[in-house]
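Please check our next protein.
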Amino acid sequence: MEFVLPEGCISHILSFTSPADACRLSLISSTFQSAAESDAVWERFLPSDYQEIISRSVSPPTAVFSSKKDLYFRLCSHPILLDDGNMSFALDKRTGKKCYMLGAKRFYIPWGDHPQYWAWRSLPDSRAVDTVLKPECSGFSDVAQLLAVCWLEVCGRMETGILSPRTNYAVYFVFKFADRTQRLQKPPEKVYVFVGGAAEGPHVVDLDPDGHSRQEHQDSQERDADWRQRETELPRERGDGWLEIEMGQFFNDEGEYGEVEMILKGMEGLNWKSGLIIQGIEFRPKT
């Protein structure tokens, strides 16, 4: 006589796997499919505080989701705005780990409130956010556009307690360029990531406003260690049309009261710079 585990038992076992594993195992049979789609499984894949996070969204949810799986994948593909509308939250699709982006309004930018140096503008593509959970939100209300400074510095801070614990994170600077830029090619910028008082960096990045460095890099026939190192110094295009460049990485074991600080600096030479548009800094699990 063939012994078959009850569906509830299969669901319980699957809840200790991962979202990717649950989706793969659902192909075994109709019983596994039903078990893998149960709320008991996907409740475990959602962050334990997901209800509190959603309650902090800039407007009350208007959608009723048919299942926890539906909610999970909605949060993976449609970030939601939190608190003052200058932070967004999403889930990493493969792992279910938390992803956050800080909008530029939450940064310390020297002379950022002086209109002759920086302008705060609303762009229609500033952030792709959920149109079901939050129908009236189209993204961060403002992005920062550099008009003219010779001392470029952007500093952001994030409490590590709201990130997924015991997780490797990468930090990304998200930006684009105005139609005209000045002095953003040379000398290169430096980025720092500080966690619990310890610093990673500085390391040099090339914002590459005209795209020549990226094209030259891709055209190179070499794929050695130097090529891979150069890859980390150049921006890449995101699916939303913005650019991102990795600022650094850290392992989040700082506990509830830790803090990570990120700094981008472009001060060498004190040349006047313009044309940089900053959307934010994003934290994503490093896979």
Summary: The radius of gyration is 21 Å. Helices lie at 7-14, 19-25, 30-36, 39-45, 50-55, 68-77, 212-219, 225-233. Residues 42 and 70 are 9 Å apart (CA to CA). Residues 86-285 form a domain with the Jelly Rolls fold (CATH 2.60.120.260).
